## 1
Amino acid sequence: MAIDADRPADARALRQALAPHMTAIARLTGLDVRYESVVACANVEAVLADRADFAAQAARWPLGPDHHAAATAISACMAFLSVRNQHIYWAGLLYGADLSPLYHRDCLLEELVQAMGLPNDACHYRPSLFCPDDLVDRLQGADAILLRTLYDPRLTPGVRRHEAMPVAATIIRELWESGAGPARSP
């Protein structure tokens, strides 16, 4: 992950705010999650910017024109994904520099996890990082189970839904029974 901001102090603050989330994601997924000092070498770029500059930032990224249009000043934070052959190969994260500290913490993690492939703005269970009505600053137990499930090696990219659902159900049941459910948050 590369961090970018107009001001060095903002870049340091963003890096510090993302650090515990990156550690948790690495632990849950088994992925090598680390900082990259050269933006061109990173597969995730996190940018702290004024919301009025979101569209200009998105125009620099390898996204289609429909994604550029989506980066408007009305959004507080956004994640963009580039997918090839059923694999996420790059993500861009935009965070509004003018957000309140509580909203910033919630938004940082939500967009980072969304870039990992989980859906956004869904209240299927609560509390959840993905429910817009819940301001939480860490993965809740069920959120962690979903992220662990998504990166479990038994689920392979490109598998059809009808094949994936029984495998996912098994993984979720195992994680739930191991105590990784809502009673315990990572």
Note: The mean pLDDT is 82.
## 2
Amino acid sequence: MINKLVSLLSTLIVFLICTGSVFAQPFAYVANVSSNDVSVIDTSTNTVVVPSIPVGTAPEGIAITPDGTHAYVTNANSSDVSVIDTSTNTVVVPSIPLGSSPQSIAITPDGTHAYVANVLSNDVSVIDTSTNTVVVPSIPLGSIPGGIAITPDGMHAYVTNVLSNDVSVIDTSTNTVVVPSIPVGSSPGGIAITPDGTHVYVTNVNSGDVSVIDTSTNTVVVPSIPVGTAPQSIAITPDGTHAYVANFVTNDVSVIDTSTNTVVVPSIPVGSTPEGIAITPDGTHAYVTNVGSNDVSVIDTSPNTVVVPSIPVGSNPGAIAITPSPPPSQFINLSPNTATNYLLTDHTVTATIDIDGIPEPGVFVTFEVISGPNAGLVSIPDNGECSPNDDCRTDADGEVSWTYTGGNRFPGTDMIVASFFSEISEMVEESNTVEKIWVRPPINTPTLSEWGLIAMGSILGIVGFMVMRRRKMTA
């Protein structure tokens, strides 16, 4: 029996690991070009939790939706896109046919569309992610479009053209090229946009440097920042302060300070022929795919040193994408859950608000009796009802209390809720519902000794009355 339980638990653990449900985000998804699959790395443990998710032929590019629910993979040789459900790590859409040899892919910030650069047909296709169908088959571009990135406002897509040595700009509202090509270095490949959307960083493979474009004028403001040999992918930290560049031939990563556009770390040695690079949502680590050594290196961005030299993945890993961090959870709790009071007395409830377990001060809370004898009663700020802050805002511990009087003369049960407007969800969030039971005060019943005193008093009263009456009659 024990062996069966152990076996069952082991099976359950393996299942949970394979689906990724027991691990906290984020995960790194790696496209393995030669093994035609995707590997999944748990970045909290730096271990491969899903060795192989089969996709199309020669997966070159990968992008993850902003909500982290799906990964879109471009398959160069089968000229299509596969869609992975990240909750189960299974392919839910095997093939979305596209142009010839799709390579890079980027998803709009609202998650509604995916833009794919097709290398051999020299164009970009647009996928509607709600239907997973191609809504714009072809936006003509320069020669051999390689990398693609979308501005944070979702208004423009920037595409590198490898053979024409320039960058094209697409207006995503019209899906047309809006400006003449922007000349950069020789054989531009990788591309990334700063979080504030003001600058585009482009790696130039043959000239071994990085060009910087000002998005307000769509002109090159920094023609050349020398890096390693044959720079491939580029990624910018979430705070926008640094750009990390994977150098294919020199087997290292260069780090650029975006405030000065100078290289502050010329070389961080990684594996063999690094190609793809992605940075965790908190900016603490950079993950680099090494094509030649079939593994992933992990860089700690604080000291800019490799902390994990090798995480083995599939064959010829190229593109890599990391799931976004889940949004912070803002929670409100109301207590006590239940209480009983006499009519016409005071009752106090306390609301507690936290974000991921950390108390949230200064939040305005509304209390309301939603049903019961006092239904419709609502807290009034600055009226002496809330404490410790009379304005009904939470204190340093994330707490605020409301006191009201059970003014109805009939017993019953009040149901009470508290609510606040969450700036995270941008909607009103309600607490759990608590109850307040109102009862009549008890009627005091005399004890046996008290009944005796009452009887004795009554008898003495009667005797006294009779004595007084006799005296009057005698007189």
Note: Confidence is low (pLDDT under 50) at residues 1-23.
## 3
Amino acid sequence: MVTKDSQFTLVGLGELLWDLLPTGRQLGGAPANFAFHAQALGEEGKVVSCVGTDDLGHEAIDLLQQLELDSSYVAVDEELPVAAHLLQVSAEESEFLAEVANRYSLHLIAVTKGASGSRLFTSDYDGEQQPEPMEVVDTVGAGDSFAAAMTVGLLRGCDLDRIHRTANRLASYVCTQAGAMPVLPIELGFL
């Protein structure tokens, strides 16, 4: 839910889809998950996407509205292209991250490693976080929630240790829930 204290609008641009899980169908797609978690953390989240003209497309838009996410930028079309890209980090991770940061003038690189935790890397910060022990229900959306918490923390001017802890805790919590967009307890935000 957008609060009157929202300072930023964060846009999830890309696919909006249905994750077909053993427990049932869940609305997802990294951009939608990102916008949802940014909004759950108190900022305005918007989804910019396109869905099909079928019932599932219309149901996706309806669910966005139920989640109080702005769906006015979700187009409806008969044909949708699908693409996926994966990046694996090499064993010499520090050298690789420094080279990528330098080559592309990046201020921050985030590496999420699933059960092995996460890492934030800048020219003067290099921190790793391990997840708390938990019973994993579903990992869909964990990385998206991490990215949303990281972005919200950066925009709010929080220090990187606090951002990293919050992002890691949020991603861990998402793993204990079914689907990528669970209702978040208030203690998981930036207090």
Note: The radius of gyration is 17 Å.
